[in-house]
Amino acid sequence: MTNQIKYDHNKDRQGLFDRDFLEQSYKNNLMLLNVTFQCEKNYPTEPPTNVVDQLYPLLLTEYTAGFPIEDIKKRMEQIVYYCKQCLDIHRQYGQKEDIMFIWGPEEWAGEEQPNIIGLCLLFERMDWLETIKDSLNPYNDDEMYYDPSFRALINMALPTKFDPSAKFAKGGHNFRKPLLQAIMAESKEESLKYLNAYLSGWYEGNRKIGNLLIDTHLNQDPEYGGYIGYWSFESAAVAYLKDLDDTSLRQYLYYPKDMVDWAREQKLKHE
User: Fold this and answer.
1) How far apart are CA 28 and CA 10, in angstroms?
2) Can you give the pTM of this predicted structure?
3) Max alpha carbon distance in the chain (Å)?
């Protein structure tokens, strides 16, 4: 991985980055990550949640800016490694009452959680998914809040206890109901219909639940950070795993179509 980035509008997967913002904010974020790495070495009994918190936006930034998918896969591997470190250290040194949020409290149910699950599925790394599943719920507590669509998404590859009739959390989180319906649908036609419905409401749905990334492309200030890209990797994962004709989904700016193409190419290579 480079510690510099030179903006190329032709590679920008959404075409929304400001050149100066991207180049400076990327440099700043890598500098901050290096400082965090050093701090973590000084506190070996503390779960490195700050590292994961900084690696995830870097992954999105790099994907949005046009990095090759093989580079994104390496960044994802790094994220999973530190998630496992968090879990291992927490299990060894933590107490039951010590709450560790790697991906934020479950009631937030932000865009990070479905995206990180979706990436595991697109890369077809079930070992990664096992770690991510544990990192979403480090206590393995079935009573703990979980978005039912996230559980259904995981269940597409790993047996996971979930109730497809469970209610979504208040505050607008039910915008993900079409995602759940797309996963549960028995026919490809139905799945495609529900995925279109989900993606058509994805941006405003994230606004309603308070996703702070929404509209950050409108004010890109390197000093304050912000825009890293808007992506729904969970939608791509469903389209890939259900082998859907995703032509109609490609109209949405935040549908990562080349990730689906890449996953399909890898599958053909190994058949």
Assistant:
1) 23
2) 0.93
3) 54
